[in-house]
Each structure stands twice: as structure tokens, then as C-alpha cells.
Amino acid sequence: MIQLTNDPIDFTALTEQVRSNAAGAVVLFLGTVREFTHARIETQAASLAEETPGDMKLAVKLFARARWPIVKAAIVHRLGTMELGDISVAVAVSTPHRDQAFEAGRWLIDTLKEVVPIWKQENWDDGTKEWIHPGLKKP
Amino acid sequence: MKLAVKLFARARDLAGTPQLEVDVSEPATVLELKQALARACPALAPLSPHLLVAVGQEYAGDAHLLAAGLEVACFPPVSGG
To answer: 10 Å Cβ neighbour count for B62?
Structure first.
């Protein structure tokens, strides 16, 4: 389950969602806005059918491709303007054993950052904005 | 055929519109669509080789064939997380 939200992420509730008696290990990853020359981060998501936040088909396929025996997994990505310290993304995953949970969690966040159509935009102090596109030269 | 292509992030800013209509022969490949986009909107030309294309919400490679009526979206490399 992958959810987009405009509100602060409740990572405690997210973690509870993936807990299970079949899973001996739960890993939670939080991505946060770090100190970075006073930039604020704006995100835009491509929800292709309609441009309102919701589940994304492209992203849901992540779980199908994972190689680990995931019992449950949940991802929330926040959209909109975020300030220093805010949580932009949370990944929670449960598996029978801890090695699998760490590896699956790492794979889920790495893959999300490669394939899920969400972009950061940095807003600089001088009022300019810049989309972040890994691998592309700045305009 | 005419295809309505949704644009996101820097591609949208460069084009100045969230959706662009492009004319391509039918059938056309994704690569031909990218070339048509660059012709229809020269501001997108430097970006077009790097655009990711999703057809019906699935990623499509350069050789993928497009037909009329499909939902097509183009965007530069993603940076969420």
C-alpha cells in the first residue's frame, strides 16, 4: 500500500499497520528534510489519471517485485511544502527475520526514489525554485 | 494521430503547460513521440532524450508502440523520498 498525503506523516500508525504475528522483524525508514542552505522542499506527484493525491499504480508494483518474504509493507510520501525536520517519506516493512526486513526496507526506499513519479523542488532564499532531476544538468 | 501528453516537473515548466498535443504517425514508437515533442516544443528539446514515458500508467521503453487514445505522460528523472 502506497499513500500520498498533504498532512504530516503518522509513522507510529504506519508501523502498527505492518505489525503481524507472522513477522518477527519490523523496520521503519524515515526520510526527513535536512539542513541544506535554508531550502524548503516542494513536491509534485504524477498521479496520472487525475492530478490529485492517491495511490499510484506505478508504485504499487514495487511490492510485487520485491525478493523478500514481506509479510506487510506500507509507504507514505508527503506532498506540498515541507520545512527543516519534517518527514517527507516513511517506509515500514515486516518480514519473518530481521536480515530480510532491513534488506527489503532498503530496497523499497531505493526503488521508490528511482521509479515513483514524485519530484522535489528546492525553494531558495532569493525566491527562485528548482526541480531536482538526478542525472540532469541544472537548467 | 494526435496524442495528448501530460508533462510533469521541469518538463511542465519548460513547456509552460501541463499537457501538450503532438502529432505523430500511427503507429509511432515512444522514441518518435520524444522527437515529436522536441519539435512541437523546442524548449523541451534538451530534455527529451532523458524523459521517462508512462503509457496507461506503465513505464514504456523507446521501442514501445503507441496508439491513439492512450494515456501518455512524460517526465524527467524522479527525485522523491
So the answer is: 12
